[in-house]
Amino acid sequence: MIDWFLGLPWVLLVVLISGGFSAFAVVGLSLTRRWILPRFGRSAEQNDVTGLIHHGTLIIYGLAVALLAVAVWENNAEVTKIVSAEAASIAATYRDADGYPEPTRSRLRAELKSYTEYIIHEAWPQQRRGQIPLGGVATMDRFQKELRAFEPATEGQRALHMETLRGFDALIHARRLRLDSISSGLPRPMWAVVVVGALVTIVSAFFFDIGNARLHRLMLAMLAGVLGLLIFLIAFYDSPYRGSQGITPEPYELIHDQLMTP
Predict the structure, then answer these.
(1) Could you give the CA distance from residue 245 to residue 252 in angstroms, rounded to a whole number?
(2) pTM, whole model, 2 decimals?
(3) CA nearest 174: which of 73, 90, 111?
(4) Domain extent listing, the chain
């Protein structure tokens, strides 16, 4: 259900989330003014007390949500860098393999090509569903075994071999970071705070005693819409690989098409 929802076009997501909160605000306000406010009666201090509680809630919630929005955006940008770093490591190692004699050269390049194709066609669809792909280990093991079995015969080969080993270590490091980033995101208790906090902030504005009901509904719908936009922003960037605008395997596809395809 979550994958289907996040897979919708981002414009539609904005409308659904922001519009949903605005609709909740308008309907909730109408019910409150009709059934609840008359039970409390009217007093001169009602708007003052309501305003104090509402403003305090809004400030605290706004600060918390703003910090979360910045955090998920930074995490999304960091994951993008990790993906680019792994793709760059694959490209560099593939080029370094060109300096090895046959048959080592062909074997190393074949393993890297197989690994790249696995990421594009098998690993990425799993990542989009929030699953950690378990394949690719055997390919990396074969590449490592082939690389470590090579014995340099000249100083040039020795220098190239050391550089390739460093590049392979960087590739393994980037791969590990990518796999770890798949499960990154806000925990469920934090999401509960985000959603419940937004609802509480909206509900606290129901108890203003304003004679112009249309104005009250309009202003509250605008407030709820802004809160919905912030929640959309957090949800949109919280899962880097999921959704219609998730990170794509384009860096790997570019390398595969430019370097590995004859």
Answers:
(1) 17
(2) 0.82
(3) 90
(4) 2-37+47-260
